[in-house]
Amino acid sequence: MVSKGFLMSCLGGGGREGFASRSLSPRPHYPSMPKYPRRKSTVEVVGGEDLEATPEATEEEEKRVALFSVVGMACAACAGSVEKAIKRLPGIHDAAVDVLNDRAQVIFYPAFVSEDTIRETIEDVGFEAELIQEEMKEKSVLTCRLRIKGMTCTACSSTIESALQDVPGVHKALVALATEEAEVRYDPRVVSANQLMEAVENTGFEAILVTTGEDINRIELKVDGPFSTRYISMVNNSLQALPGVDDVNIDPLLHKVTISYKPDQTGPRNFIEIIESTGSGQLKASIYPEVRGKGLHRHEEINQYYQCFLWSLVFTIPVFLTSMVFMYIPGIKEALDKKIVNMLKVGELLRWILSTPVQFIIGRRFYVGAYKALRHGSANMDVLIALGTNAAYFYSIYTVLRAATSPNFMGTDFFETSSMLISFILLGKYLEVLAKGKTSEAIAKLMNLAPETAILISYDNEGNVISEREIDSRLIQKNDIIKVMPGGKVASDGFVIWGQSHVNESMITGESRPVAKRKGDIVIGGTVNENGVLHIRATHVGSESALSQIVRLVESAQMAKAPVQKFADRISKYFVPLVILLSLVTWLIWFLAGKFRSYPKSWIPSSIDSFQLALQFGISVMVIACPCALGLATPTAVMVGTGVGASQGVLIKGGQALESAHKVNCIVFDKTGTLTTGNPVVINTRLLKNMVLRDFYEYVAAAEVNSEHPLAKAIVQYAKKFSTDEENPVWPEAQDFIAITGHGVKARVGNKEVVVGIRA
């Protein structure tokens, strides 16, 4: 047989995108990935089958939950080995290892295994373990996330942060200007999420609840049909009666039903069935479109600033032309210099009329922002803009009124200064929100890894498939059986109950080499099924899935402030008052210098006097010293860094890691599989018997050309070099082809039996 006559070396790879997904920032909570390329053993298969069916006797036993502190885990591979060791024990219902918090949560049957046995098993793997004696059912500290609208600079975020910190029951509050979100750690026994939202709204900003941090899922359903008061009451009572439903909130105007529930006990498909059955077929329920999503809010904000900027240009450009350009065009100059009353000219009146809408209608947002800031004893960018533009605008009104009432007053207005300042600031804000929108694209790409639909299948009592239907992947519930077709994405975290295939897990592990999957093996939502059909039982859905936790980790990293950002925030508290003081000092120095003729008269432009020159310098200092750059530079850099890292498979745990990265002078990798180009390539061939290399590769390629395995493709690609026609090679026909998952292929080529694969 040819298979005994050769050894082949292949260089397997993992793309650049995965090299740090283990070492920089391990994946949270669901570390089921192996440390090395997997080869199935009898122990693993048996362990996998234990997941599928627990002995009948244990179903009636009471399950217990134990929480262990595990010291020494460095990456997802460590967590994976701990989780695998625990799950091999008899009587284990489920186990989850959180590498970020050094915890392991185990659900087990006390009749089959004890807490001491679980602890000893963890220690046998090589880590220190200790049972944590605490009540698992009620959390004393929750983490709430709020989306905040209306923040313009670090003074706003500092005001909100201080207001939240002052609320009794709040342990820690963090407000991120770049992401426009707040993360609050609070005691639910002392304060509620609604009270936190009220605290934010009392500071003058709008707060939208993202999550309360409780161990419940939340879903919004849209109800179509006659949603009368009677139906609303019936739907509410029917949903409240379901086990696992925590809260039901119905908005009759929007036809929206918001349900908080425990995913272990119920799910969104149950809610849809209840609503539709309650309405006797007249009501139809579906998942509510995400109209209040972060992306849509960002799009509205971008569009709003764009419209404001365009309208400001409509008024500002004529003001600029009448004051700076038309004054040098004969004919137009005479028309603009024509006097209306005393020394009041047509040009001055036009500029006053055109700049007023810019100052008070288009620039209204700056007055509102300044009022909110001053009301709470702080000063922000809006205060500077309002002071600077008002100084220019109202001084200009003074010159216009003085000219209208005096037969010999010669003054210059600054209407173009105030309107052009507002226009340029609006342009800056537009570019700023545009940049903010792009930084969150990486998280959106992560969320898009999950498929939109899934095939739900049902079994009868004998284990035969009786129905298949396509559902929205957001409707998947725990213990559902999902069918995954070749080339399709795995819709949910779970384990294989039927079928064999290879799954590309590079988006999680960084390993480009597909992992063989068979009955009992764990799969991760968002990964790609290469060949073969798989039936998967869902175990982690919604916010519990690995993908959701990766997104949450990236969002938390973007919330975290780098040390240099904390320093910048401290400076920004004193920045605005200092700038106002400096602008007043600047005006005073230049005014006194002009009064006492301390500088040549030629420095003063012919159209203005020394007071007006000093006023221009004072306004310039006030407006140009914008604190936005100071407060936004670092968080924007952190957002871009963590976002781009996530899209490349690198999870970075906050700004501190990025800030410290320049000090790194040595990187240690725990494996070499991910340091290659990501495509397996044949690098060497060693024949153990005399044979022409071309003939040898002809036999091998004839067998492997029928396989979809990446190594098979690499071998066929290399074999083309020995073919007469490298572009369109013709291989001998292979008969009786059999692919053995995880081992290799065999076939009959000509009069020889060819076996290509591992030694086994």
From TrEMBL:
Note the superkingdom of the native organism: Eukaryota
UniProt GO molecular function:
ATP binding; ATP hydrolysis activity; ATPase-coupled monoatomic cation transmembrane transporter activity; copper ion binding
* Cross-referenced InterPro entries: ATPase_P-typ_cyto_dom_N, ATPase_P-typ_P_site, ATPase_P-typ_TM_dom_sf, ATPase_P-typ_transduc_dom_A_sf, ATPase_P-type_domA, HAD_sf, Heavy-metal-associated_CS, HMA_Cu_ion-bd
Question: Where does the UniProt annotation locate this protein?
Answer: Membrane
One Pfam family linked to the record: Hydrolase
Q: Which residues cross the membrane?
A: 308-329, 349-367, 379-398, 574-593, 613-633
Listed under GO cellular component are:
membrane
**Record key words, sorted:** ATP-binding, Copper, Ion transport, Membrane, Metal-binding, Nucleotide-binding, Repeat, Translocase, Transmembrane, Transmembrane helix, Transport
Q: Does the keyword Calcium apply?
A: no
What's the protein here called? Copper-transporting ATPase
Q: Which organism is it from?
A: Musa troglodytarum
